[in-house]
Amino acid sequence: MKGRGKLYKNIPKQEKILLKNLVEYRDGQVVSKTLVQNDFVSVTIFSFDKGEEISTHASGGDAMVTVLDGKGRFTVGGEVFTLTEGESLIMPKDVPHAVFGEEKFKMELVVSF
C-alpha cells in the first residue's frame, strides 16, 4: 500500500506492557519514543520532567493526548487544560498548542492525518 510506511517499532509485540514504562524520566528533559510514524498516524510516548515544555506549535492532524503518569498542562487555542493519569484531550489540526510539565508526567500522543 503506497504511503503506508512502517507500523509499530520500538515496542515489544505479543507481550503485555505498560506504555508509561516505555520511556524513562530524565532530569531537565523531555524524552520521546516514536512507536508508529507513517502517512496516516503517528504514535509517540513522551516523558516530561517538572517544568519542561514543548512550546506553542500546530499539528498537521488531529492530536489526541492521554496522560499515563503525573500531571501536565496543555494550552490549546489559548484555553488551558490540566490533565492527570488516565485523562485525554483532543488538540484539533492547525490549532496552536503547547505542553508543560506541572510535575513529572508521561503521555501518549496519537496524531491522525
Automatic annotation (TrEMBL):
It comes from the Bacteria. Residues 45-111 form the Cupin type-2 domain. SUPFAM superfamilies: RmlC-like cupins. Pfam families: Cupin_2 (PF07883). InterPro entries: Cupin_2 (IPR013096), RmlC-like_jellyroll (IPR014710), RmlC_Cupin_sf (IPR011051). This is Cupin domain-containing protein. It comes from Eubacterium segne. The lineage of its organism: Bacteria, Bacillati, Bacillota, Clostridia, Eubacteriales.
